[in-house]
Amino acid sequence: MFTFENQQELQFNYQDSSNYFKILFQNKLYLVSKKGKQISSGFDNISESKAKGYFETEKYAEFNKEIIRTKGLVDSTGLEVIKCKYHTVAINTEDSTIYCCSAVYNSKSNDDVYNYKGKLIYSNKNHIEFSSKTIHVLKRYEPNESFVIENSVTNNSYDMDGNLFVYLKKNKALVINKDNWFIIDILTKKRQKIDKDEYFQNLYRMIEY
Fold this sequence. Notes:
This protein is mainly beta. The protein has a domain at 1-124. It contains 2 helices and 18 strands. It has helices at residues 8-13, 196-208; strands at residues 20-25, 28-33, 45-48, 54-63, 66-75, 80-86, 88-92, 97-101, 111-115, 120-124, 127-131, 135-140, 146-151, 156-161, 164-169, 172-177, 180-185, 191-194. A hairpin with a 3-residue loop joins strand 11 (127-131) and strand 12 (135-140). The longest helix has 13 residues, at 196-208.
């Protein structure tokens, strides 16, 4: 308790219900188990992800006088599942996949999809808006904003106009195309137009209760 002085992380995280806590040492954060085992190497930030046993990591670097944050992922064994090199790291807990955007340092390589073990299972030059193990939603900006839904099992794909894609659950997603709102089944392509005012009212009632 007295090895690392002035540890706010120790004070708060160590006393919670988690099996892990963070310590600050030489301006880097380290993930440590409550049994005293160092789990991760040093990062500029570490935070719990929405997938149990996985932690999002961040490294900071200066580029053109701006601070650039790159992100990755480690698991509770210390395995660096995703190297800390992406702009965003998103987790699909429904299908145990991790999809990563590569737009950093004013450049862009392929966006990538991994399984929970860190194995690359899919890659594309377009931005990956959402991904499961078999369905990949790509966003295009030219000649107009639209989405491409690819099925890696059937090798089929289809286009869909839209500005915003929000995955819900069980292959259902909310797609907004300007003032038109749809709930779409991304497997069957079936869509249902919805009233956005009614949608927000129902959402408000759910939050309220």
